Amino acid sequence: MTPTDRDSLMLPTRGKGYGIFTIFVATWLTVVICFGILGKISNLPILEHTARNLYFHVPMWFTLMLGWFVAAFHSLRYLMTRKRMHDVRAEQAALVATVFGVLGITTGIVWSRFTWYTGTNIWWNGDPRQVMVAVQLLISGAYFVLRGALEEDRLRARLAAAYALFATATMPFLTYVLPRRMESLHPGAEGNPAFSQMDIAPEMRWIFYASAIGFLMLGWWIYTLRVRFRAAEIRVTERSH
Amino acid sequence: MQVTLDTLSAARDTSIALLDPNAAQQIPQGIERAMLASDKLPVVLAVILIIWLGLLFLLFRTDWKISRIEKRLNEGGDKA
After folding, report:
1. Low-confidence ranges of chain A (pLDDT < 70)
2. How many angstroms separate the CA atoms of B80 and B74, rounded?
3. Which of A27, A61, A51 has its CA nearest to residue A212?
4. What CA dihedral angle connects B54, B57, B62 and B66, to 10 degrees?
5. Contact (CB, 8 A) for A46 and A115
6. Cβ <8 Å between A186 and B14
7. How far is CA A204 from the centre of its chain?
8. Most buried one in A143, A191, B15, B73, CB count within 10 A?
């Protein structure tokens, strides 16, 4: 390891702002969960209370999208600058995105199973968005398989960065564009923008926005935490050689 | 039991359509009886719990790995 490599893994000291941010995120999401459970909803037949899942299931996907955009940004920066910190950041952003994606698909499976598929025992219902998101998660999984398969640091960082750009390029289509072209349980399949004036009751809209912002901030917190940990881990491992 | 294309297109307004209307007539059994109680509120609990447990898992894994770094640092304390 050359000295420049080590320097590029130096992180700024955790500042006061970061501490305030973490407390803010924790408080924000706690309030959102309370409002999500207690708030008023338009109690529709079949949907009933499960309408509240909008506040928790959908932000998972927003966080997945943000995660992959961050991963793509740092992958691109890695290819341009070859600074190792960008590789670390890209990997951890992809990891956070994938974890939130898995949570999103699992919550979706449970929601649909006990809402539209009661009495049918259908867990995997072949909803286009569900299937395509599963494909996206497999593409994400391949990113980590690729990383795990390569021993040499620079080669791994370079190939993973190129692959991350591909994985992010497919993401908007598989999670957003294509599913909206097909019949689906999800709103927006009729050609209207999802979350338009008609799709969501006004009293639910603000909780949903707050929840989306909350989970995006939580994702950012976990991501920065993972980056700090991973940079420390690499520095400890390589010093002991 | 069958979800035909017909019922699927009838389900365009997904908030009010059920994919298998016959299923709604049956008395829920087993796990469904628990999940469908109190206007399906337990489904919301299940969704929140999945997210909570998933994030806890990530937290525990990170915690475990940080412990490993700390151990390494303590072992090579003199050299560092």
Report:
1. 1-7, 181, 188-199, 240-241
2. 9
3. A61
4. 160
5. yes
6. yes
7. 22
8. A143
Buried b / exposed e over A94-110, threshold 16 CB at 10 Å, is bbbbbbbbbbbbbbbbb
Q: Residue A56 and residue B18: Cβ atoms within 8 Å?
A: no
Please count the other Cβ atoms lying within 10 Å of the Cβ belonging to residue A197. Answer: 9
Find the residue in A nearest to B40 (Cα): A49
Q: pLDDT digit string (tens) for A35-78?
A: 999 988 877 877 888 889 999 999 999 999 999 999 999 999 99
Count of Cβ atoms closer than 10 Å to residue A163 Cβ? 18
Please name the residue of chain A whose CA is at the shortest distance from the CA of residue B55. A99
**Residue at token pair 């997945």:** A64
Token representation of residue B62 = 């990170």
DSSP B12-69: SSTTT--S-HHHHHSPP-HHHHHHTHHHHHHHHHHHHHHHHHHHHHHHHHHHHHHHHH
